[in-house]
TrEMBL record:
Gene3D superfamilies in UniProt: Magnesium chelatase subunit I, C-Terminal domain, P-loop containing nucleotide triphosphate hydrolases
Designated name of the protein: ATPase associated with various cellular activities AAA_3
Pfam family, one: AAA_3
An MF annotation (GO) of this entry: ATP binding
Entries under InterPro entries matching the protein: ATPase_AAA-3, CbbQ/NirQ/NorQ/GpvN, ChlI/MoxR_AAA_lid, P-loop_NTPase
Domain ATPase AAA-3: 40-169
The organism's place on the tree of life at top rank: Archaea
Length: 310
């Protein structure tokens, strides 16, 4: 049974308005990510609503949700779990960490050291983890939504390139506009903000995932994706371009976007809309160009203007 993608997304958008004002684009991208099994990095200054958006988005699906506040002393075992000796059973027993969930909110991921950040790598790519040499499958679906504060420079750690490459999207959450902020203040005063409730069953989410897989990507669109990725790898202003994983995730995200737009095929505009969210965090501008004020976003805008399939 097929699900109407537009109706699916509109239901999500409508329910999210109970807890969030504005940020429609963020809600759409999170929907695309959950439909294409992608992880998301939300970046924005404190108080912008990153945690509220992530928590209430997770509440839409009736899935298991856990949140972990990452700090400099967070250990990998705090995320994954660990084995302890149960004296009553005279055997070792697993005490599972918060990663055993469907949607994990990793708050302020850049506050924890790279060793702890790396505990998420296998989970984000494979949907599994290894504890003391024992392989374990995670619940399906599994998604990480991480938040990052770009303003702080003390007591924080850069995310390694390998970690960044596991995020399908990096989304910058900006301040809402005047009208939305006034609406937020009024609703706060009136007490009309509410947490979202589960409106999409796990079954419907799985059916939607199946519908996304049926969305067609033409050979011309695939070549377009390759040409974009390849142009980034050969741009002399960049230390490195994007990985083949980025190409794959751009294609999968474009299928999900086409689905929520009510189409069963991908068009070039899907790629143009998504490329900055999929690719910008995977490239590195050379220092000499960075000092001249050139940004990765400007370079990617140049690259996206390569020949577009008709």
């Amino acid at each position: 049974m097929d699900i109407n993608g537009k109706e699916f997304y509109n239901a999500i958008k409508k329910e999210m308005t109970k807890s969030v004002v504005g940020n429609d684009e963020v809600i759409k991208l999170l929907t695309v990510a959950v439909l294409s099994n992608g992880n998301v990095l939300l970046e924005g200054f404190p108080g912008i609503g990153k945690t509220i958006i992530a928590k209430n988005f997770a509440g839409l699906f009736g899935l298991d949700f856990k949140r972990i506040q990452l700090t400099p002393d967070t250990m990998p075992s705090d995320i994954l779990g660990f084995y302890f000796y149960n004296q009553k059973k005279s055997d070792f027993e697993l005490r599972p960490g918060p990663i055993f969930t469907n949607i994990l909110l990793a708050d302020e991921i850049n506050r924890t050291p790279p060793k702890t950040q790396s505990a998420l790598l296998e989970a984000m790519q494979e949907g599994s983890i290894t504890i003391d040499g024992k392989y374990m499958e995670l619940p399906n679906p599994f998604m990480v939504i991480a938040t990052k504060n770009p303003l702080e420079h003390e007591g924080v750690y850069a995310l390694p390139e390998a970690q960044m490459d596991r995020f399908m999207f990096k989304i910058d959450i900006l301040a809402i506009d005047k009208q939305d902020e006034l609406e937020m203040l009024n609703r706060k005063q009136e007490g009309t903000f509410k947490n979202t409730i589960s409106i999409i069953s796990e079954r419907d989410l799985r059916l939607a995932n199946i519908c996304v897989k049926k969305v067609k990507v033409s050979p011309e669109i695939m070549l377009y994706i390759h040409n974009i990725a390849n142009a980034s790898r050969n741009d002399n202003r960049l230390l490195y371009g994007v990985s083949p994983r980025a190409s794959e995730q751009l294609m999968m995200a474009s299928k999900a976007l086409a689905f929520v737009e009510g189409r069963n095929y991908v068009i070039p505009d899907d790629i143009k809309y998504l490329f900055k969210y999929v690719l910008i965090h995977r490239i590195k501008v050379k220092l000499e160009y960075e000092m001249e004020g050139l940004t990765g976003g400007k370079i990617m805008e140049d690259i996206i203007n390569i020949e577009v399939p008709k």
